[in-house]
C-alpha cells in the first residue's frame, strides 16, 4: 500500500502538486483586489515553476553533482542542469518582484492607495 | 583583424549596445550629453554590424552559427542567423537607433532631472538588446532570459510615461509574468521529453518522441506564453493601456517592435522545432487561426470606438498582430512570407504612426483626434508621413501594408481557406474607416490648437515644425514603408525564400 502511494507521489503526484500551486497562484492574481497580494500570488506561481523543474532533476539514490571518488558514471549523480536553470529563473523572478514593488510605491504615491477598486473606481477606462 | 571581427558579429551586435547601456549612467554623471551619445553611438554601431551580417548571410546562402565561448551545441549556447532573423535584426537595430535619436528633444525638455534622462536611455538600450538577443538566439532557455530583459525594460518605459503609466505597467507586469512562466513551463516539458534545450537539437530529438500528451501540453503553454507577449486576441488585456500611456518617445519602440519579436519566436518554435507534418499540427494551426480572426475583427471594431489617437493605434495593433498569426496558421510559403513581411511592414507603420503621435504631443500637446483640425498647415511633413503610413495600414498599393496582405491572401487562396480572405478584406475596410476619420478631422476639422509659448520649444530651429532629430525618424519611417512596398519581391524571393522553404 505504502509502495503504491510512494510510486504515485514520485511519478505523478509531485507534478500534480506543482500544477495545483500554479493554479492557486494564478487564481490569487485574478481574484485579490490588493496589489501587494497580487505580487505575492505572482511569486507563488513562479515558485511552482521552479518546483516543477527541480522535480525533473531529481533521481532516486542519486548524489550531489560534485565529483566523488570511486563514484563514476552519470547514473550516480542527479541532473544539475535544471538546478542551474532555476538559479537564473530565481534571479529573474527577484528582478520582477523588485520592479513590481518599485511600481507599487509609485502607484501609492500617485493614488494614495494600492486597492484596485479604489484606483479604478474613478474612470480608469476613459 | 577585420575578418576576426566579422566572425564575431552576431554576438557583438548584442554586446556593443550592452556596454553602451551599462556605461551610459556612469558617463552621464560627468556629462549628460556624452551619456546620451554613448547609447546612440552603440545603437548605430549595432545597426551597421547588422547590415554587414545580413549581407554575408545572403551571400553565403545558409544559416550562420555562432558558438558563445566556443562551446559546441547542444552543450553550449549558440546564436543562429538565417535570412529571416537577419532582416529582423536589421529592423530592430534601425528602429532602436531612430527611437534613441527621436527621444532626445523629449528628454531635454525635462531639465531638472539629468540622471532620470540617463536612466531612460539606459533602459531604452536594454529593450533593444533584449529584442536583438531574442531574435538571434538558438537556445530555448536563453530566449526566456532575453524575453525577460525585454519585459523588465518595457515595464520601466511604460511606468515613466503618463499619469496612468505605473498602473498600466503593473498590470502588464502581472500578465507578462504569467506569459513568461507559461513559456518556461513549455520549455520544461520539452526538456523533460528530450533532455536538450538547443533548438536545432530539439527539432531532431522531438521527431523520435512518441509521448504526444507532453508535446501537446508544451504547445499549449507556448501559445499562451507567446500569445501574451505578442498580445494575440484573448490574451491582449494588458496591451491597450500599456501602449497608450507609455513614455511618448519610447512608445514607437514598444508598440512597433516589442510585440513583433515574440511573434517571430513563435514562428521559430512552430515551424523550425515542431514537426509541421504531424496530424495534430492542423488542429493547433486552426486554433491559432481562430484566435487571429477574432483578434483582427475585435481590434478593428474596438479602434472605431475611441477618440484618443494612441488608443486607436493600440487597438489597431491587436488586429495587425492577428494578421501575423493568421499567416502562421495558413502555414504555406505565401502565408509565412506574408507574416514575416507584415512583421517588417507593420513595425515601420506602427512605429511611424507613434512617431507622428509623439510629434503632435510635443508641439501642441494633442492627445485626441478631434484636436487635430488644420494642424497640417503647421506641420506639413509630419502630416504627410501620417497620410502615407495610414494609407499603408489600410492596405493601399504601392505601400508595404498592401503587399503583406496580398501574400497572406495568396496563401489563404492556395489552401482554400476563403474565410480568411473575407476577414482580410473586412478588416481592411474597417481600418479605412478609422484612419479616414482621422484624415477628416485633420483636413476638414475646425482649427482648435493655438501656437504654444515659444520658450517651450527652443530646440526647434526656425522654419522647422519639430526638431530635426524628430523629423528624420518620421521621414525615414514613411520612406521605409514605400521602399518595403516597392522592394517586396526582393525581400520575399531573395531573402526569405531559402530559409522558409527549408523549414516547410
Compact description:
The complex is a heterodimer of chains A (126) and B (504). By secondary structure, chain A is mainly α.
Helices and strands in order:
The complex is a heterodimer of chains A (126) and B (504).
Chain A: H1 2-31, H2 35-57, H3 81-111, H4 116-120
Helix pairs in contact in A: 1-2, 2-3
Chain B: H1 2-7, H2 9-30, H3 32-60, E1 64-67, E2 78-81, H4 83-108, H5 114-136, H6 140-159, H7 165-194, H8 199-206, H9 212-230, H10 239-245, H11 251-258, H12 261-273, H13 279-303, H14 309-330, H15 333-364, H16 380-394, H17 400-415, H18 418-444, H19 468-486, H20 488-503
Antiparallel strand pairs in B: 1-2
What does this protein structure show overall?
The complex is a heterodimer of chains A (126) and B (504). Chain A has 4 helices and no strands. Chain A has 126 residues and is mainly alpha-helical. Chain A has one domain (2-120): Helix Hairpins, CATH 1.10.287.3510. In chain A, helix 1 (2-31) packs antiparallel against helix 2 (35-57) and helix 2 packs antiparallel against helix 3 (81-111). Chain A starts with a helix and ends in a 6-residue tail after the last helix. The mean pLDDT of chain A is 85. Chain B is mainly α and 504 residues long. Chain B has a domain at 278-504. Helices cover 76% and strands 2% of the residues of chain B. Chain B is built from 20 helices and 2 strands. Chain B has helices spanning 2-7, 9-30, 32-60, 83-108, 114-136, 140-159, 165-194, 199-206, 212-230, 239-245, 251-258, 261-273, 279-303, 309-330, 333-364, 380-394, 400-415, 418-444, 468-486, 488-503, and strands at 64-67, 78-81. In chain B, helix 7 (165-194) packs antiparallel against helix 9 (212-230) and helix 7 packs across helix 10 (239-245). Classes of the chains: A mainly alpha (126), B mainly alpha (504). Chain A binds chain B through residues 22, 26, 29, 35, 38, 42, 45-46, 49, 52-53, 56, 82, 85, 88-89, 92, 95-96, 99-100, 103-104, 106-107, 110, 119, 124, and chain B through 141, 144-145, 148, 151-152, 155-156, 159, 163-164, 166-167, 169-170, 173-174, 177-178, 180-181, 184-185, 188, 191-192.
Amino acid at each position: 500500500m505504502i509502495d503504491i502511494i510512494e510510486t504515485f507521489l514520485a511519478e505523478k503526484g509531485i507534478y500534480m502538486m506543482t500544477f495545483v500551486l500554479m493554479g492557486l497562484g494564478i487564481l490569487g492574481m485574478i481574484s485579490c483586489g490588493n496589489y501587494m497580494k497580487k505580487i505575492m500570488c505572482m511569486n507563488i506561481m513562479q515558485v511552482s515553476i521552479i518546483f516543477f523543474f527541480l522535480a525533473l532533476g531529481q533521481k532516486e539514490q542519486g548524489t550531489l553533482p560534485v565529483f566523488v571518488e570511486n563514484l563514476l558514471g552519470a547514473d550516480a549523480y542527479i541532473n544539475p542542469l535544471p538546478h542551474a536553470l532555476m538559479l537564473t529563473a530565481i534571479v529573474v523572478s527577484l528582478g520582477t518582484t523588485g520592479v513590481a514593488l518599485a511600481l507599487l510605491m509609485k502607484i501609492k504615491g500617485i493614488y494614495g492607495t494600492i486597492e484596485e477598486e479604489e484606483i479604478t473606481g474613478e474612470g480608469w477606462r476613459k | 583583424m577585420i575578418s576576426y571581427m566579422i566572425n564575431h558579429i552576431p554576438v557583438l551586435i548584442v554586446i556593443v549596445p550592452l556596454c553602451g547601456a551599462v556605461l551610459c549612467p556612469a558617463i552621464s554623471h560627468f556629462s549628460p550629453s556624452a551619456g546620451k551619445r554613448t547609447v546612440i553611438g552603440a545603437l548605430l554601431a549595432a545597426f551597421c554590424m547588422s547590415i554587414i551580417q545580413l549581407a554575408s548571410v545572403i551571400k553565403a546562402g545558409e544559416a550562420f552559427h555562432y558558438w558563445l565561448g566556443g562551446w559546441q551545441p547542444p552543450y553550449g549556447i549558440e546564436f543562429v542567423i538565417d535570412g529571416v532573423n537577419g532582416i529582423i535584426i536589421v529592423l530592430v537595430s534601425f528602429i532602436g537607433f531612430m527611437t534613441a535619436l527621436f527621444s532626445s528633444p523629449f528628454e531635454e525638455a525635462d531639465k531638472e532631472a539629468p540622471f532620470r534622462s540617463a536612466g531612460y536611455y539606459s533602459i531604452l538600450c536594454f529593450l533593444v538588446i533584449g529584442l536583438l538577443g531574442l531574435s538571434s538566439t538558438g537556445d530555448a532557455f536563453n530566449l526566456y532570459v532575453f524575453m525577460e530583459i525585454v519585459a523588465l525594460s518595457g515595464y520601466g518605459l511604460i511606468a515613466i510615461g503618463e499619469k496612468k503609466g505605473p498602473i498600466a505597467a503593473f498590470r502588464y507586469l502581472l500578465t507578462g509574468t504569467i506569459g513568461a512562466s507559461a513559456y518556461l513551463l513549455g520549455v520544461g516539458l520539452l526538456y523533460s521529453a528530450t533532455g536538450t534545450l538547443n533548438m536545432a537539437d530539439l527539432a531532431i530529438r522531438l521527431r523520435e518522441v512518441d509521448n504526444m500528451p507532453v508535446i501537446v501540453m508544451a504547445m499549449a503553454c507556448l501559445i499562451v506564453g507567446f500569445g501574451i507577449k505578442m498580445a494575440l486576441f484573448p490574451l491582449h488585456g494588458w496591451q491597450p493601456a500599456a501602449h497608450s500611456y507609455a513614455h511618448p518617445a519610447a512608445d514607437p519602440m514598444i508598440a512597433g517592435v516589442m510585440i513583433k519579436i515574440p511573434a517571430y519566436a513563435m514562428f521559430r518554435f512552430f515551424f523550425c522545432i515542431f514537426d509541421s507534418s504531424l496530424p495534430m499540427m492542423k488542429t493547433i494551426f486552426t486554433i491559432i487561426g481562430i484566435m487571429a480572426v477574432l483578434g483582427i475583427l475585435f481590434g478593428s471594431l474596438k479602434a472605431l470606438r475611441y477618440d484618443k489617437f494612441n488608443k486607436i493605434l493600440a487597438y489597431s495593433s491587436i488586429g495587425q498582430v492577428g494578421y501575423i498569426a493568421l499567416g502562421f496558421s495558413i502555414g504555406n510559403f505565401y502565408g509565412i512570407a506574408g507574416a514575416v513581411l507584415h512583421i517588417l511592414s507593420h513595425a515601420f507603420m506602427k512605429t511611424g504612426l507613434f512617431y507622428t503621435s509623439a510629434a503632435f504631443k510635443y508641439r501642441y500637446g494633442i492627445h485626441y483626434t478631434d484636436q487635430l483640425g488644420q494642424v497640417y498647415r503647421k506641420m506639413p511633413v509630419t502630416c504627410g508621413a501620417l497620410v502615407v503610413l495610414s494609407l499603408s495600414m489600410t492596405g493601399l498599393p504601392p505601400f508595404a501594408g498592401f503587399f503583406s496582405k496580398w501574400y497572406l491572401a495568396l496563401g489563404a487562396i492556395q489552401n482554400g481557406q476563403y474565410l480568411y480572405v473575407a476577414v482580410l478584406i473586412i478588416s481592411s475596410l474597417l481600418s479605412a474607416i478609422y484612419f479616414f476619420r482621422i484624415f477628416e478631422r485633420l483636413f476638414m476639422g475646425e482649427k482648435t490648437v493655438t501656437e504654444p509659448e515659444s520658450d517651450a520649444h527652443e530646440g526647434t530651429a526656425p522654419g522647422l515644425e519639430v526638431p530635426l532629430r524628430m523629423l528624420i525618424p518620421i521621414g525615414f519611417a514613411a520612406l521605409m514603408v514605400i521602399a518595403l512596398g516597392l522592394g517586396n519581391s526582393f525581400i520575399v524571393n531573395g531573402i526569405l525564400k531559402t530559409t522558409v522553404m527549408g523549414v516547410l
